[in-house]
Amino acid sequence: MHVLGLTVLVALGIWIIVALGARWYRSAVEARSLVALVLGVVVAWLANIDLWRLWSLPDLRYGWVGVTLTGLALGGLALLWDGVIGLVSGLYRKVEDEAETLERRDLKRVA
Questions:
Q1: Residue 97 falls inside a structural domain
Q2: 14 occurs within a structural domain
Q3: 111 located within any domain
Q4: What is the reported pTM?
Q5: Higher-scoring residue by pLDDT: 35, 105
Q6: Which of 17, 43, 57, 66 could lock onto 50 through a cystine, CB 3.0 to 4.6 A?
């Protein structure tokens, strides 16, 4: 269970870094998927995270394969975070209807 929590939180951190980068560089929005996957692999290599080893699954033939696949999984999970957070924020805007609230705030009764 700790491995799943570690994976989800590291992926959330990757998503935050990618989202901040997309705000600073407008051209990075198109490459968000590639940036998330590459950043996931980099983080997995720097932290030496291997999900197969942590879950006590049989070892892969080469150790670097497990770390690289873990990085790709982290990047993919970061993209999943992007979709989930986009869905929740869209639903919030729909329920609260910010535009209608702003329009009605400044209206004054005439007559």
A1: yes
A2: yes
A3: no
A4: 0.76
A5: 35
A6: 66
Dihedral of alpha carbons 12, 32, 97, 91, sign: negative
Residue 47 contacts by C-beta under 8 Å, 6 or more apart in sequence? 10
Helix segments in 1-111, DSSP class H: 2-24, 32-47, 51-54, 63-96, 98-105
pLDDT tens digits, residue range 20-76? Answer: 887 777 766 778 888 899 999 999 999 998 888 888 887 778 888 888 999 999 999
* Per-residue pLDDT reduced to its tens digit, 75-92: 999 999 989 998 998 888
Asked if residue 25 belongs to a domain, the reply is yes
Q: What is the pLDDT of residue 103?
A: 67
User: For residue 99, what are its two tokens?
Assistant: 């535009």
How far is CA 32 from each of CA 43, 76, 84, 88, 110, rounded to the nearest angstrom?
A: 16, 11, 15, 19, 50
> What range does the domain containing 60 cover?
2-105
Instruction: Provide Rg for the chain, Cα atoms.
Output: 20
Q: What is the largest CA-CA distance in the chain?
A: 82
